[in-house]
């Protein structure tokens, strides 16, 4: 299915040079009806319409197929170009503005809370320190800013292809057997590719030209030695002074050494509770804790449950 032809069929454009204002209630009703009793919906954005600021209780991915626009989220102006994807949080106050509506095609991919929840993110998590670090970083950014922009990386962009497959599946196979299952599958594939792109964008190099390291190398080393590692031993391994290396970590990850180490230890503890028969005390010791109360408090803070409750569930 040609996406441009589909868009022109779905959206009736006004005479050239004219625009119209959409009533907020009509806009929200249109978005909600796009779900069609499914957890994923698709809604073409009429670039020539002035949609008022609005919010809703589901996630939204703004996919720019052609042209460009400005996504206004809360008090931020986010420019988007062809191939970009912007993930909006639930209840984010937002709207779109297009300066060249005749050349702009935008689709909104609507995702129910149950699909893009913390538990769903956890399904993508596995016993890999680096992958989980970037996954957690992405979640934190989404929570803090109410949006994340994934910029197009290349002409052979897998995310673009997957967005088009979701749009095609939604409109071509309405009511077909397993349509919702396939839409969720395609969305999972899209989410994985977005996380990969996020890692590539944020896997910064640190150090001098002669001794450059990727932040992923640092995270991997910390994860593998999370039971005994200290800032001093980490800095020694990468040939840095502890104070200097601490500053580098803060600048590249937004967290200090202690915060990073706690996240890695908690991720490791969660994986051991899920995939092993080790006692909670042994799990605690394997991730570098020797005080059960302190370990339990950190785990509760991170995952909302005590270690014993987490294992039971």
TrEMBL record:
SMART domains with a match to the protein in the record: HTH_ARAC
Gene Ontology molecular-function annotations: DNA-binding transcription factor activity; sequence-specific DNA binding
Keywords: DNA-binding, Transcription, Transcription regulation
Keyword Transcription regulation: yes
Domain named HTH araC/xylS-type: residues: 216-313
PANTHER family for the chain: ARAC-FAMILY TRANSCRIPTIONAL REGULATOR, HTH-TYPE TRANSCRIPTIONAL ACTIVATOR RHAS
Name of the protein in its database record: Transcriptional regulator, AraC family
